[in-house]
Specification:
The protein has 76 residues and is mostly beta strands. It has one domain. Helix content is 7%, strand content 30%. The protein contains one helix and six strands, in the order ββββββα. The protein has a four-stranded antiparallel beta sheet with strand order 1-2-5-6. The chain has a two-stranded antiparallel sheet with strand order 3-4. It comes from Streptomyces thermolineatus. This is ATP/GTP-binding protein.
Length: 76
């Protein structure tokens, strides 16, 4: 899939890893056991993977890139 001028690999996952992730689309947590989308640039590495809520991934072009995390928010 093409996004922001790059080819991206996108996978639907079941969320069975038992870990919390932070969605870059809404800056909210994705709890363990929650299905979500993992996306990364085609030529990126493991550190480039991002875990998104499905609805946030679908709305990624309508969201602002100026999302700011509060000072107390954990950085996953």
């Amino acid at each position: 899939m093409d996004w922001r001028g790059e080819e991206w690999t996108v996978r639907q996952v079941s969320g069975s890893a038992g870990k919390y992730y932070r969605c870059p689309g809404c800056d909210q947590e994705i709890p363990p056991g929650t299905g979500h989308v993992v996306a990364w640039p085609e030529y990126g590495g493991v550190d480039d993977r991002r875990h998104w809520h499905g609805s946030c991934w679908n709305a990624r072009d309508r969201r602002s890139a100026k999302l700011q995390r509060s000072r107390n928010a954990p950085r996953y």
